[in-house]
Amino acid sequence: MCTTLCQGFLLAQPSEIKPRMRVIVDNDFSGDPDGLFQMAHLLLSPSVDILGIISSHLSVKDGFDPSTTRAENAAKKATELLQIMNLEGKVPVVAGSNTGMTDDNTPVKSAGVDLIINEALRSDTKQPLYVLCGAGLTEVASALLTKPEIAGKITC
Questions:
Q1: d(Cα 74, Cα 134) in Å, to the nearest integer?
Q2: Do the Cβ atoms of 39 and 81 come closer than 8 Å?
Q3: pLDDT tens, position by position, 46-70
Q4: pTM given for the model
Q5: Closest CA to 39 of 57, 51, 27
Q6: Environment class of 113 (CB within 10 Å of its CB; exposed 0-12, middle 13-18, buried 19+)
Q7: Which H or E run includes 50?
Q8: What confidence score (pLDDT) does residue 16 get?
């Protein structure tokens, strides 16, 4: 039985695998390297359609990037990985906010928030939208506060 299953798996060509879901990656790429590994793994997966990469900020006291431009620095790291993988220009990289939310009710504006809202509001596809968060939730929370109607259209 295992031989049959394994042979069937080996016969499947990557070109036969179609994306089953839409994905937005949100991570703090200027921190420890786990986010970059996650991003590389997803970029190599033929079963997901990566629509965008959001670079998130780190905690103010984080030792990896003590600057005030943490999300912008993370966008540079994500773009560098795309270049290394010969995927530059294939997936948009946008910076999230360089800071967290000041309170629970005030959204922070950023290109990452806009990306989440725009993808969630698309009506030209039935594929589910997943926002994969490996960092803070500033962009997701801000998107939900800005457009509450997207709540049922994304899965984190």
A1: 13
A2: yes
A3: 889 999 999 987 776 777 777 778 8
A4: 0.84
A5: 27
A6: buried
A7: strand 48-55
A8: 77
CA distance 53 to 31: 15
30, 73 in Cβ contact below 8 A? Answer: yes
Measured CA to CA, the distance from residue 116 to residue 79 in angstroms comes to 19
The stretches in the chain having pLDDT less than 50 are 1-10
Do 53 and 87 touch, CB atoms closer than 8 A? Answer: no
% helix, strand, coil for the chain, step of 5: 40, 15, 45
In the prediction, which pLDDT does 14 show? 56
Look up residue 115 and give its two tokens.
Answer: 């990306």
Residue for token pair 């016969």 = 11
Burial class of 139 by CB neighbour count within 10 A (0 to 12, 13 to 18, 19+): buried
CA distance 6 to 56: 40
